Amino acid sequence: VATSGDAAATAAISLRGLRKQFGDVAAVDGVDLDIADGEFFSMLGPSGSGKTTVLRLIAGFETATAGTVWLGGTDVTRAAPFERDVHTVFQDYALFPHMSVLDNVAYGLRVRGIGRKDRRGRAEQALDTVRLGQLGGRRPHQLSGGQRQRVALARAIVLEPRVLLLDEPLGALDLKLREQMQVELKQLQRDLGITFVFVTHDQEEALTLSDRIAVFDAGRIQQLGTPREIYETPGSAYVAGFVGTTNLFDAATSQRLLGVRAEHAVRPERLRITPTSAEPTTADEIRLDAVVVETIYLGTGNRVHLRTDDGLELVALEQYTGSLDSAAHRGDAVTVRFARADVVPLAAAP
Ligand code: ATP
């Protein structure tokens, strides 16, 4: 077996110089990536940024135009899907409608020639894992969307793949079910020790579930890091804007506020809204006089849109902390404060 002589030899998944061209479109435009064994890894990006194509290249449903795919230290770039120790859970579940839930889960074992008794036991166990042990006798159409989703997961985990590829697996679920399934997915991944590669365009989902996230744009990884790194120190205006809401300061504004001529970002929750006062500015705090444009009630707090006296648009997030001392109302004149340390420099646009 050839190895690339670096991390590709030890990582669960390694991509090297990966490219996929569809006609004029470079769907994947030079991706280098190592995903560790047992990692919950998310690929996050807007529609059309190339996440699904990367997933399909890993699974073997697409053939790379250039570059290599490694699984567990083996170059599988030219291997067929069935020769790869990965399993894919698609958004549309792809269950067999005429089979019972239990038979759906056992199907992959049957294809692999596992005997009837053994596969029944293993399928029942997989259904227990996704807490559907009681529903093995039903048909898919007799289940809710969330239950069907779990059947699709059970069907994947029963095969005990080293790597599970999940393409927007929670996309069809309502918010409540989605949050429940997020917790279940995370626990499942931890308990089974399977490497998860999770495709989503939901930044909150990626932040809450992942060990690491790759943020995609136009077929390339814009930034790779832990949820905390991605959120707190975004490397570009693109990442800062896509992952969460942010206040972006262009070079001229940064020059004026901070004395540094480069793009900066500050998160809404770092802004404090106080009544206008004559309190002196400390060296480590920025204070701006502003007017409240709109206050949006969020349940857990308020999102407040402001315009500073010199025309800068800002968004602040007020969280309820027991006493909401500065309920900002539309038209109020206020002072917005934030620490210099909370303003993150962004890399110059490429
Ligand atoms: P989504 O979140 O909408 O699934 P994505 O980030 O997963 O988007 P891809 O599905 O990987 O993006 O698509 C990346 C680009 O490649 C898009 O411009 C898409 O139109 C194009 N593309 C994907 N598959 C094909 C194909 N089979 N033939 C032609 N173009 C394709």
From TrEMBL:
InterPro entries: AAA+_ATPase, ABC_SmlMolc_Importer, ABC_transporter-like_ATP-bd, ABC_transporter-like_CS, Mo/tungstate-bd_C_term_dom, P-loop_NTPase, Transp-assoc_OB_typ2. Gene3D superfamilies: P-loop containing nucleotide triphosphate hydrolases. It comes from the Bacteria. Keywords: ATP-binding, Nucleotide-binding, Transport. Signal peptide: none annotated. Residues 13-243 form the ABC transporter domain. It holds the Pfam family ABC_tran. GO terms for molecular function: ATP binding; ATP hydrolysis activity; transmembrane transporter activity. One of its GO terms (cellular component) is ATP-binding cassette (ABC) transporter complex. This is Putative spermidine/putrescine transport system ATP-binding protein. It comes from Nocardioides szechwanensis.
